[in-house]
Design goal:
17-stranded mixed β-sheet, mainly beta, single chain, 8 helices
Length: 514
């Protein structure tokens, strides 16, 4: 519902611009400056609040999960340049695709961004639950608060605009600027930047986009500026590269609990596939099993473009749903979960579909580690598992980790296996008769090395916070391991096929022998 209202307010020193959102929100703020005199600010005609940009988050990325902010916006495709061995050429047909390796770490999957001139390689999380791509900026100045777990992490390469000859600040008139500031009024960012009325109405203000603050979940925050620079990507033939000039991303100088950058793969103007021109096609990935986390010798392919849709005859496809309120999430309809051969536990209506306001539904999100399900659906799953599994509980580990079910399992010869049939099977049923039998290692996982032929395994599903707004469930990356997942955006569907992703990586030359 559109709303028209007038706010008459007094702005004093250190004014911060922000717009409240229905749930955990993305906040935009002006560059730090001091207003030395009080100003009467007349804000008129904020419309279509129902379509305001949203951000959704439940838990921090480490140790449990994270659902990242997503914005609603338009697609914008920059011009492209193709190079081969440093020579600019016409665009060959094989460059209709982008193929980048994904490396697994303990709480997500990393893609390497080649930014700037000359290119600087920076590894960031690949996240299908957000739009904004951002990287840590400043060799010395980048600061991450409450990031002790990452102090010795070697992934924290940073980007410095001064070291790139092609770096530019994004302007306040850019649609990217309006998007990152969650603004329904395109004049807002330039007003914050101090543009005159005449340049506002003409769209000619030359001032840079004001600094933004972007929040993630229960406390994660990044603060930075929108920057444009050349992004270099790779094709199916690694010797072919594609240059995307003026790729827009956040140059972030300080964060709270966010030590590593993020590549947003959502459906908005700022997203990685949108800026590369592939949002009308799609992409695919095959996430390695968790046992390969932090192994630099193996990676798996992230494929963007037509190549993502080869060999899809054996995939099961479920339709993508569109929320009228949050159109940039990838929604799928979870209908039921079956444990062993028991009667299906039917998903409640709010996890299968949307209410009249666009809330509810289930998103698939590589930026959330574990699948989150709401009560009483989640509690029904726990109760059935408890009635089937007879091994002793590891209560002390449950208390320490926050996982709801942990069991002390027999482990003959101290050899851990995932397919030992000692635990019940779990099958996710999605719309269009899609039945996804999860590999056992995707839901019960050994929490440490065996001791005296006993190992503790925990259920790696979690309870969704009880919120009235936003998605009701999340299908996380841990449950997508060893599975080819295809985002077919042209046909508005997502496909699944169980696959040994390590073997697939080896067949594509993504495993180093030494």
């Amino acid at each position: 519902m559109s709303q028209l209202f007038i706010i008459y307010t007094l702005i004093t020193v250190n004014e911060i611009y922000s717009k409240p959102q229905p749930w955990d929100q993305k906040i935009s703020m002006s560059s730090p400056f001091t207003i030395t005199m009080s100003i009467f600010f007349f804000l008129f005609s904020l419309t279509a609040l129902g379509n305001a940009n949203q951000s959704f988050a439940k838990k921090p990325r480490n140790p449990s999960s994270l659902v990242l902010g997503l914005t609603h916006s338009r697609a914008l495709y920059p011009a492209l340049k193709i190079s081969n061995n440093g020579m600019s050429t016409e665009k060959p047909s094989e460059m209709s695709d982008v193929v980048e390796p994904l490396r697994e770490v303990r709480d997500g999957y990393l893609i390497s961004l080649n930014l700037g001139t000359p290119p600087k390689v920076i590894q960031v999380y690949m996240d299908t639950g957000s739009d904004l791509t951002w990287v840590p900026c400043g060799n010395i100045s980048f600061d991450c608060m409450d990031c002790d777990d990452y102090r010795n992490d070697k992934l924290m390469a940073t980007y410095s605009p001064s070291y790139s000859s092609s770096s530019l600040r994004d302007l306040c008139v850019s649609p990217f600027c309006s998007d990152v500031h969650s603004s329904d009024n395109s004049y807002d960012p330039c007003t914050i930047a101090g543009c005159s009325l005449s340049t506002l109405v003409k769209g000619t203000c030359p001032r840079p986009c004001p600094s933004f603050a972007y929040t993630y979940g229960a406390g994660g925050v990044v603060i930075g500026t929108l920057t444009r620079d050349t992004l270099t990507t790779h094709g199916s033939n690694p010797s072919l590269t594609r240059e995307v000039p003026n790729f827009c991303f956040g140059c972030v100088g300080s964060t709270f609990r966010e030590p590593i950058g993020i590549a947003g793969f959502g459906r908005g103007v700022l997203s990685f596939p949108s800026q590369l021109g592939f949002l009308h096609k799609g992409f695919s990935h095959c996430f390695l099993a968790f046992k390969f986390a932090n192994n630099p010798k193996i990676s798996s392919p992230l494929v963007i473009g037509d190549l993502a849709f080869t060999s899809i005859d054996n995939l099961q496809f479920t339709p993508l749903l569109k929320s009228p309120m949050y159109p940039n999430y990838y929604y799928i309809s979870l209908e039921a979960i079956v444990i062993n051969n028991a009667a299906p536990i039917l998903a409640p209506s709010r996890i299968r579909e949307f209410d009249s306001h666009g809330n509810g539904g289930t998103i698939i999100d590589s930026g959330t580690t574990y699948t989150h399900l709401p009560d009483p659906f989640y509690s029904q799953i726990l109760s059935l598992l408890e009635s089937i599994i007879t091994y002793p509980r590891a209560k002390e580990l449950e208390d320490r980790t926050g996982f709801d079910l942990c069991y002390k399992m027999p482990c003959p010869n101290n050899a851990i296996t995932d397919g030992d049939h000692l635990l019940p099977s779990i099958t996710f049923h999605f719309s269009n008769n899609v039945s996804l039998v999860l590999p056992q290692g995707n839901y019960f996982y050994a929490m440490g090395a065996p001791i005296n032929s006993t190992v503790v395994k925990c259920l790696l599903l979690q309870r969704m916070d009880d919120e009235e707004s936003g998605p009701a469930g999340v299908f996380g990356s841990f449950q997508q391991q060893n599975m080819k997942v295809v985002y077919d955006l042209e046909k508005e569907r997502i496909g699944f096929q169980p696959m040994d992703c390590a073997s697939a990586a080896a067949s594509q030359g993504l495993v180093r022998k030494t």
